[in-house]
Amino acid sequence: MADTALTDMKGRFAELLNDGADFQVIPLSAKDTDGVFEDGYASASITNILGGGAVEQTGSTWVRKTHTNGNITSSADDTANLWRVVLDADDTWSAVLASNDVVALLIAEVGSGDGTDRVIGQWDFAVTTDGNDVTANYDQTNGIWTAA
Amino acid sequence: MADLAALQAAVDAAQAAQDSLIEERASKRASMPKAEFKVYNYATIQQQKDTQAALGAAILAFQAELKVIRSDAVESAISVAVGTISESNTPGGAN
Asked: Which of B80, B88, B89 is the mutation pick for testing A, counting most A CBs within 10 A?
């Protein structure tokens, strides 16, 4: 299992950001294998991805977290010669009760509904919950995404 | 001690503002020409930042009060680093 993207959506993240799209982070309690996630779906819609082995975690205080366009840095890194995407703020979930574990986070478009909004990729995010707050700590230097 | 219910209400209100903004932006993105939406987007970046910052601050205030109540929480709060997905030489897909 690795941080990975839908093959059909590669090259799209920066394009969508540049067009002004907003995004959301969706916690998962189960996920498909990397191979299925990358290439195994008929479309990239959230409904389609969650209709497979991926299961959204909605227990306790888990909710989707939205990041509007102005809160996502998307810019060229001319030193490393790549495009870099940085989520400007971490996401935190308050007092997540035990037995509401997660294994991954999806990133997807937001605003048009699950049948239309497309998933871009997923990160490993293994958390065994115990009642404490949970923070997704986004890398402010390397970003969550690069395209070269 | 702050009123936990009031702090939760502040989180809910900030979340509602964020949801409303997302909905408004999605509507405009669907109805506006792409170039026009980009102008609108750039013109409202500060509003987006302010809305997201208000939500983040409300959540942190709520969590801080929770930690006062649950005195063990400060030491054992869970923080998980999120990795970087790297694309290379990808021309884009078909969907």
From this structure: B80
What value does the CA radius of gyration of chain B take, rounded to a whole number of Å? 19
pTM: 0.89
Q: Is residue A148 in a domain? A: no
Chain A neighbors of B23, CB-CB under 8 A: 111
- Asked if the structure places residue B24 within a domain, the reply is yes
**CB spacing of A68 vs B21 below 8 angstroms:** yes
Q: Within its chain, how far is the Cα of B89 from the centroid?
A: 31
- pLDDT tens for A64-77 read 999 999 999 988 89
Q: What is the ipTM of this complex?
A: 0.83
Q: How many domains does chain B have?
A: 1
Decide if B84 is inside a domain: no
Which pLDDT tens digit goes with each residue over B47-69? 999 999 999 999 999 988 887 76
Range(s) of the domain holding residue B15: 4-70
- Tell me how many domains chain A contains: 1
